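Synapse differentiation-inducing gene protein 1-like (Fundulus heteroclitus), 100 aa
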Amino acid sequence: DSSMDELSDTDSDSNFPLMIPQDYLGLAFFSMLCCFWPLGIAAFYLSQKTNKASAQGDFQGANAASRQALWLSVLSIVFGIITYICAIAALISYLSAKPS
């Protein structure tokens, strides 16, 4: 019976504020500096918005901002990698086409 009481304590709504959504600040900062910066800036902004919403008790808004920050960070990294690959391919093509 004590295990049932323990289970109900962990599932109570009073523990909900402990589940603060992750802000992905480090990932957003990396994507802003090293990858596709326009999306990185938006991800960084949403990361900050996650912290502000959590501090105000708006966990639903914080969760939405957290998901958006993650997706924008990942998109920024993907676009950055694609841009770097295209730039390297263009440079290799340019240097190999030059007459020696």
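The chain has a mean pLDDT of 83. Residues 69-99 form one domain. ok done for today
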